[in-house]
């Protein structure tokens, strides 16, 4: 039977909405509850931004500890080599971050 996989953008796009703000703890809880709901992937933000690095590192550590179950974390960066390499060095282990080449 075909499966539907949901990708949630609350922690990236949703927090950019006017008068909407989530603390880092709030974003963490969103990921926890998304995992409980069986959502496949959560976009956690922009891992190359200086102020996001501690949050991204914490999310990766929690994911590696199993706190988010099968939830896959993803981040946004420009499709240039230096932006792709920077978040990998700053926040991700080889088990949780995977780079993909653009398909276009």
Protein described:
The chain has about 100 residues and is of the alpha/beta class. Helices cover about 35% and strands about 10% of the residues. The chain has helices at about 25-35, 55-65, 80-90; strands at about 5-10, 40-45, 70-75. Strands 1-2-3 form a three-stranded parallel sheet, covered by helices on one side. The longest helix is centred in the N-terminal third of the chain and has 14 residues, at about 25-35. The chain is globular, with a radius of gyration of 14 Å.
Question: Which features does this protein show?
Answer:
104 residues, alpha/beta, three-stranded parallel β-sheet, 3 helices, 3 strands, globular
Short overview:
The chain is α/β, with parallel strands linked by helices and 104 residues long. It contains three helices and three strands; from the N terminus they run βαβαβα.
Please estimate the helix content.
Answer: 25-40%
**How many β-strands, per DSSP?**
3
- Runs with pLDDT <50, length 5+? 93-104
Q: Please give the largest β-sheet.
A: 3 strands, parallel
Number of helices: 3
- Based on CA atoms alone, the radius of gyration comes out at 14 Å
- Biggest sheet strand order reads 1-2-3
Secondary-structure element series? EHEHEH
Structural class of the helix and strand makeup? Answer: alpha/beta
Give the termini distance in whole angstroms.
30 Å
Write down the overall mean pLDDT. 77
Share in β-strands: 5-15%
Q: What is the molecular shape?
A: globular
Secondary structure elements and their pairing?
Blueprint: E1 7-8, H1 24-37, E2 41-45, H2 53-64, E3 72-75, H3 81-91
Parallel strand pairs: 1-2, 2-3
